[in-house]
Each structure stands twice: as structure tokens, then as C-alpha cells.
Write a structure and sequence with these properties.
Radius of gyration: 24 Å
Oligomer: single chain
Number of strands: 20
Length: 452
């Protein structure tokens, strides 16, 4: 495919440029620029089709010339996943946007893939409704959230955005517009596109469940110092059956041992020192982390549940009417090596300890403690071989606990040197899906595990 693109020659490249302008309109097609990269791979052309039929024409043009196509939404996660083998045409979905007109009181919404999630929520809120999804990426489009398999705190109660799918419309690699949904086989196909990074189809729109906006929301926060303390608290919260909408964790990085909020000799300080989570672990963070529980519902009910939870979590727990500043934010920054750890909730503390031990110090960890899915950040300055050794150690611990550690994004040198995915039980099924839906490997080639 790369050879096909490079063999076009000047006249062939000019013809592609002319055809894209005819399909999308001159203002909406251009040669790729410095910002048009996918995990470091530059795009040759950028096309912004005005609707599904125009997007289908772009795909048919790519098929005729054996060109690789990579979809892009808002670009908030364009550096996630593996670097594609080739990016000939970047298909920008920004004009595949809008919210379908549904009957008043309908519990579903059809949303264009290029619609920013915050715009969807703002529109639905005018009628007292919402999508029960809160992906952390600012400005993310609905299609980008689904294609990346991104989920936020509300996934604890309502499932991931992909779990809320009722159907999708997508473009196959040859440009055919396909509708999937309306039953188990259709939903299986629709959800197969989730997390595929655009490598199995180009999302056009999605139909999702909507719900009423909760009348009241309260956040109950409890400071924590160690992963084992988190384990004990999460177990207590889940056993209380308070129907939390989210249970989120924030653990900072750092080396010094914590300074107690109580003076020496205070009973609470003594109890903390004797807690088993404080023994045998040097290098605790320099500030407390937090476990924060979101409760939603009617005002009286939420207040009663929040007060019960404070009693269960003891005197250090507090109630707030707004989320903490770190809520719905990843712990990593551009240039960091970003990790996602998935493990049964009872083993989350073991996963975090394994990461600390391998890194030689606490690293920032944040995410859904009630689901056992968290993100972590390693400094971008770490040498690739050091990152590889940390990954090997953590994955060794997680393997025995049915967990996994995935590199979400990383600096180019690290990306080239490490296995981004680790063990993947579903690789055979993924390969079969790729061969069925994109046999020519024209959509985002190399973006998926196994070089698919």
C-alpha cells in the first residue's frame, strides 16, 4: 500500500487532490500539514466530507488507488495506539455531525460521529436529558470516544459508552454504508467497532440510550495514602450498596513519606501509622490521594446516602457539591508514557504496588477504582529500555491476576521499543474481524494489535 501511494507520481497525486476537492469542496480538502499526524505518521491528504455519501466517495477513491485511510474526529486521542503503517488520506469526520430529531420523551438519540460530546450534552440538557457518559478528553467527538473505547467515571454505574450503543451507521472500507444494531448480532457488530481506532470501519452515526438528568449530585471524598487503604475503602463502599454513580481514585506520585494532618501522638495519627497499608512500603507520596464517590438521584435520597457513606468512611470523609479538580482528567501529560491498567477490583492495590516497585517510586495513578480500570503516567524522559523493563514486571504480576497493562500513548522512541499491548486473548477474533471487514487492510493499517 505504501508503495502504491508513492508510485502515484506527480500527475497521479494532482489527480487525487483534484478529486478530493470535487468530493468535499475546495475549502474542505488539502494536502496534509505538520499537525496532520497519526501517532507520528504524517498524512498526505486531509479530506473533510460534508456527509456520509461524500465520505463514501472518499473511500471509493482510496480503494481505486489502493490508498490507506485513517479517520480523525477532534484529534484528542490521535496519538493513542500504534502508529499506522501508512496514512494517505486523513478522513476528518467534523462535518458528519448533528443530533437526529427524535419524538419528545424518546429514550434514544442518534448522534453524528463528528459531533463534540459536550455539544450533545448541552443540546440534550435543554430537555432535561443526558447521555450517561463523561469521557475525559476535552472536545472529544462521539465517534472519537467510541473508536478509542474511552470511558469516564459514569461507566461505573452505566457502563462504557460502547455498552450504551443501540446501533451504528458506518462506512465499510469499500464505501458501503452499513447499519448495524436492532438485535444481538447487529449489536455485536456495532460494538466491534468500539476501540478499533477506525481500523474496522468509519463511524457515521451512533444511536444511544439517553436518560433524565439527575436532580442532585454529591461527591463524597476520603483521603488515602496507600493502595491497600484504597482496597479496604472500595470494598466498604461496594458492600454498603449505596448505588454510587462512580468511584474514582487519585494517587499522586512522589518520594517523601506523608506528613500527617494530625500532631504526633494524636490517636488518628497513631492509628494511621499502625494501619497495615503503611507498613513495608518506603517512598509513599508526598501528599494524600483521594477516593471520591459520586452519588446521583433525588435531593433527599442523595443527601441521606451521602451522610451514611461519610459515617462508613469515618471522620476524614467530606461531602461536596462539585467534583474535585482532577475529576475526569488523566494523570498523564503530553510527552509522558501513558498506561492503562485493567485488573479485578480486588487486585487493584497489587497492580499499583507492582507499578511502584518496578518504577522505584510512586507514579501518578487515576481512574475508576470501582471497576479496576485506572491510568498511570511514566515520565517521558525515561529511557525506552527502562520503560520496557517496568512493563515486563507489571505485566508479570497482572498476568496471574487476569489483568493487563496497555501503553495508551508514548514518545516515539518508547513506542518503537516496547510492546504496546502485551498479552491479548482476543487477537485471533480481532484478526478474523479485520479480514472480514477490511480484507485489503486499507483502514488505519497497523493501528490494531498484531500489526492489523
Amino acid at each position: 500500500m505504501a508503495a502504491a501511494a508513492s508510485s502515484l507520481g506527480r500527475s497521479g497525486a494532482l489527480e487525487i487532490t483534484r478529486r478530493l476537492a470535487a468530493i468535499c469542496g475546495p475549502p474542505f480538502s488539502r494536502l496534509g500539514g505538520p499537525a496532520d499526524e497519526v501517532a507520528g505518521r504524517p498524512a498526505r491528504w486531509v479530506a473533510v466530507p460534508g456527509g456520509p455519501h461524500a465520505a463514501a466517495e472518499v473511500l471509493r477513491l482510496a480503494a481505486a488507488h489502493d490508498l490507506a485511510v485513517v479517520p480523525r474526529g477532534a484529534g484528542t486521542k490521535i496519538d493513542w495506539g500504534a502508529t499506522p503503517v501508512q496514512v494517505d488520506i486523513m478522513l476528518d469526520t467534523g462535518r458528519l455531525a448533528g443530533i437526529g430529531h427524535e419524538p419528545v420523551g424518546a429514550l434514544v438519540a442518534e448522534v453524528g460521529a463528528g459531533t463534540p460530546l459536550r455539544a450533545v450534552q448541552a443540546t440534550l440538557e435543554r430537555t432535561g436529558q443526558r447521555l450517561a457518559m463523561d469521557a475525559p478528553s476535552p472536545g472529544a467527538t462521539l465517534g472519537g470516544v467510541l473508536a478509542a473505547g474511552e470511558a469516564g467515571p459514569l461507566s461505573h454505574r452505566h457502563g462504557s459508552p460502547c455498552d450504551q450503543l443501540l446501533g451504528v451507521r458506518y462506512l465499510a472500507a469499500d464505501g458501503e454504508l452499513v447499519s448495524a444494531g436492532g438485535g444481538a448480532p447487529g449489536l455485536d457488530l456495532a460494538r466491534l467497532l468500539c476501540g478499533s481506532q477506525g481500523a474496522l470501519g468509519v463511524l457515521v452515526s451512533a444511536t444511544l440510550r439517553v436518560q433524565s438528568v439527575p436532580a442532585s449530585r454529591l461527591w463524597v471524598s476520603r483521603p488515602v495514602w496507600t493502595p491497600l487503604e484504597v482496597h479496604d475503602l472500595v470494598r466498604t463502599i461496594l458492600a454498603a450498596r449505596l448505588e454510587p454513580a462512580a468511584i474514582e481514585l487519585d494517587l499522586p506520585g512522589g518520594m517523601p513519606r506523608p506528613r500527617h494532618p494530625y500532631p504526633p501522638g494524636h490517636p488518628a495519627a497513631t492509628a494511621r501509622e499502625r494501619h497495615p497499608s503503611m507498613s513495608g512500603r518506603a517512598g509513599a507520596p508526598s501528599r494524600a490521594g483521594s477516593v471520591v464517590v459520586l452519588l446521583e438521584g433525588g435531593p433527599a435520597d442523595v443527601t441521606e446516602r451521602a451522610e451514611r457513606l461519610v459515617g462508613l468512611l469515618h471522620g476524614e470523609a467530606t461531602i461536596a457539591h462539585s467534583a474535585p479538580t482532577w475529576w475526569r482528567r488523566y494523570p498523564f501529560a503530553p510527552g509522558d508514557t501513558a498506561l492503562r491498567l485493567e485488573v479485578p477490583i480486588g487486585d487493584l492495590h497489587a497492580a499499583v504496588y507492582a507499578l511502584r516497585d518496578a518504577a522505584g517510586a510512586p507514579v501518578p495513578v487515576r481512574g475508576s477504582a470501582g471497576l479496576g480500570v485506572v491510568h498511570a503516567a511514566l515520565p517521558g524522559a525515561l529511557a525506552p529500555d527502562r520503560v520496557a523493563s517496568i512493563l515486563a514486571a507489571v505485566r508479570g504480576v497482572l498476568l496471574a491476576r487476569q489483568g493487563r497493562c496497555v501503553v495508551v500513548s508514548a514518545p516515539p522512541a518508547v513506542r518503537r521499543a516496547v510492546d504496546l499491548w502485551g498479552e491479548l486473548a482476543g487477537l485471533t477474533q480481532l484478526r478474523a474481524a479485520k479480514e472480514h471487514l477490511d480484507p485489503e487492510h486499507r483502514l488505519a493499517p497497523g493501528r490494531l494489535p498484531g500489526g492489523l
